[in-house]
Amino acid sequence: MRQFHDMLYLLEEERMETWKEIQKTIDYIEEHLDQALRIQPLAELAHLSPFYYQRLFARLVKRPVMDYIKMRRLAHACQDLLNSNERILDIALKNGFSSHAHFARVFKAAFAITPELYRKERPALNQVLKPNLSMQYVLIDEGVPLITNEMFLEISYDTLVKEETYLGILGKMSIGANIPIGAATGINQADQLWQSFYTLKPSIPHLLDKGSTIGVSFLKDSSLDPEKLGSDQSFDYFVGMQSDGTPSEAWEEWRIPAGEYIICRFETEKSEPERSTAIAKALSYLLSTWMPKKMLISEPYSIEKYQPSADADVEKIEIWVAPLQKNELENP
C-alpha cells in the first residue's frame, strides 16, 4: 500500500513539473513567431515525445499547438496593423503568413472582419492570449498576493456594509465570442457597450462624481442554466456607474446588495491590449483555478468594478463574486 501511495505522489509531482516544460515552449513560441515552428523541436525543448507533447499542450492551453501559434501570430499582426504604416502584405509575411490572401482569410475567420477594415475602424478584438500556466497551479491564500512577471493580484473576503446602486445600459454578449476567457476570438462586444455607455453617460441622472463603474456578466433569464448554454447563445452584460440611489425608469439599474463577497484586486495599464489581457487573466484565475480548488461556488454573476484612480496611466480593478453558503447549495 505504501508503494502505491508513493507511486501516486511521484506521478503527481511529475504532472506538476511538466507544465513548466510546456511553459518553456510557450515562451519560445512567443519569441519566434516570425520563424518556422515545428512540433518536433518544440517537443524536444519540453523533453517530451511529439505525441505526448501535443496532447499535453492542448490540455493545458485549450488549443492544438499549431492553432495556438496561428492565433498568437494574428494577435501580433493586430498590433502591427494599428501601430505601423506597413503594407498588409509585409505584416502578413512578417508574422509567418505565406501571402496577403492567406493572412486575410485566416484573419477574417478569427475576427469576422478584414485586416483592411480593422485597420480603418480599429474595433477592440478578443484575442487568444499567451497563457501563464503557473496561474493554473499556484493557489494563494486570502490576502496573500500572487506576483508574476505579468501582473500582481490579491484575493480576499470582504463585507459590503451598505447596498450600492448603479445606473447604465444593458447588452447581449455572444458566448462563443467571449468564452473561454482569454481564448475566444472576435469583436469585443463588451468594449462596444462600454463605448456606448460613455457616450450616453452625460445624460444619465443621479451619478456620483467620483463613483465606481462596473461591468456585470449575468443571465437576466433566471430559468437558464449557465452550465448548459451553448456557444451560439448569449449572456447579459450591464455597464453602469454608481448613483445616489434615486430610481430612473429611463435607465437600467444594478444593485450590489450588502453582504459578503470574494474580491480579486489587481492593477493594470489603462492602455490596450494590456488592460483586456489583465482582466481576462484575473477572471480566469479566480473563476477557473482559485474557486474550484477552494471548492467554492458563487452566485451566477460576476462584477468587474473599476475604482477611481489618481494615476492617469493605472487602472484599479476588482472582480466581485458572491459565494454561495453551504445551506444554499443543499437547498437550491
Strand-residue fraction?
15-25%
Strand order of the largest sheet: 2-3-9-11-10-6-7-4-8
- Overall number of structural domains: 3
Radius of gyration: 22 Å
Total strand count, please?
Answer: 11
What are the low-pLDDT stretches, counting only 5+ consecutive residues below 50?
1-14, 326-332
Shape, principal axes of CA atoms: globular
GO molecular function, one term: sequence-specific DNA binding
Organism: Enterococcus florum
InterPro entries: AraC_E-bd (IPR010499), GyrI-like (IPR029442), Homeodomain-like_sf (IPR009057), HTH_AraC (IPR018060), HTH_AraC-typ_CS (IPR018062), MarA-like (IPR050959), Reg_factor_effector_dom_sf (IPR011256), Tscrpt_reg_AraC-type_HTH (IPR020449)
Keywords: DNA-binding, Transcription, Transcription regulation
Summarize the structure.
Keywords: DNA-binding, Transcription, Transcription regulation. The protein has 332 residues and is of the alpha+beta class.
Q: In words, what does this structure look like?
A:
The protein has helices at residues 2-31, 39-45, 50-61, 65-83, 88-94, 100-111, 115-121, 134-137, 175-178, 189-200, 274-293, 326-330; strands at 125-126, 146-147, 152-160, 164-174, 186-187, 213-218, 234-242, 252-256, 259-269, 301-307, 314-321. It has 3 domains: 2-62; 67-122, Orthogonal Bundle (Arc Repressor Mutant, subunit A), CATH 1.10.10.60; 134-330, Multidrug-efflux Transporter 1 Regulator Bmrr, Chain A (Alpha-Beta Barrel). The chain contains 12 helices and 11 strands. Strands 2-3-9-11-10-6-7-4-8 form a 9-stranded antiparallel β-sheet. Strands 1-5 form a two-stranded antiparallel sheet. The longest helix is centred in the N-terminal third of the chain and has 30 residues, at 2-31. α2 packs across α3 (50-61) and α5 packs across α6 (100-111). It has 332 residues and is α+β, with helices and mostly antiparallel strands.
